[in-house]
Amino acid sequence: MNNIIKDELHQLVNNCDNELLLEEAKAILQNNVVKDWWDELTDEDKDSLVESEKQYENGEFITHAALMHEFEAWKKK
Description:
It is a single chain. The chain is mainly alpha-helical. The protein has two domains: 1-34; 37-77, no CATH class. 70% of the residues lie in helices and 0% in strands. It has four helices and no strands. It has helices at residues 3-15, 19-31, 43-57, 64-76. The longest helix is centred in the middle third of the chain and has 15 residues, at 43-57. The protein starts with a helix and ends with a helix. The model has no long low-confidence stretch (mean pLDDT 92).
């Protein structure tokens, strides 16, 4: 068991004033389970993310800068 990590966690908890954060940390430690965000998604959301990754890998995307440039041109019309 790594006592350094425990000591660091004790310090962080003692210095934390955010009640919501403390409640979340307590729930995690009590359950001793870390949930994967992927498992929290609906099948539709998972499909959308997988499709988005495929589009990105195929170069089917536009950069933020390019989009802003197009938007500025559109606003001038």
